[in-house]
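User: Before I run my own analysis I want an independent prediction to cross-check against. Here's the chain; please return only the structure tokens and, at the end, one sentence I can use as a sanity check.
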Amino acid sequence: MLKVAVIEDDLPTSNQLKSWIEAAKPGIKIDQWHTRDEAEAAISREKYDLIVLDIELGRERHAGVAIINAINKHHATPVLVVSAMPATIYRSIMKALDAWDYLQKATFEEADFIDTFLEMLRSVKERKQQIDKPAAAADELSMDPLRQRSPIWRGQRINLPLTAQRILAALFASRGQVVSYDELFQVVKSGRNRDNIRKHVSTIREAFREIDANFECIENVPMRGFRWVDSANGGN
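Assistant: Structure tokens:
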């Protein structure tokens, strides 16, 4: 049975998130925690498949940051942050802390939460299935079996938001072939236009170049889309 923790100090919000999860995934076990102390104690003794977390708990403005650090220390459990803190500021902070995704309160609907939640559960399932698979060659892109959302390039993990992960996966799955803009539109939830796709690809390239300055494996094909080119065939 899948086991999820909802860490949220506001009881109505906690109950709403719980009801959404139960509706999306009947039979799932859900623990609700309302303080940092409760959450950290639970994390130390329980192994959750996914954790939904608010950043601000009670008077502790950044309690969620400490909780994420505790999560990474114990089990590296996938975390979906749901917070009123502005996404423009905190999304990058949560990304640096290895949170999987970030939703800002009052800016998303039930369907957005459920889509994100179920997508993360699917990634959890895929991660478990890949644990026993042999590692890829050192110069090949692969998914870390312990963190399915984090691609590995030349032995180093690359941190990317979920939409960029989907685009990267689509490009790598069709490596050597052009992936059209229309095909890439199918893997994003919003912003289905060419400018937005180009921004996501730019984010992917920048993330790779943080650890590999010569990364050139994503090729722009004018008017058509993008193509993943293996390093031996025109990349670094």
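Sanity check: Residues 110-130 form the longest helix (21 residues).
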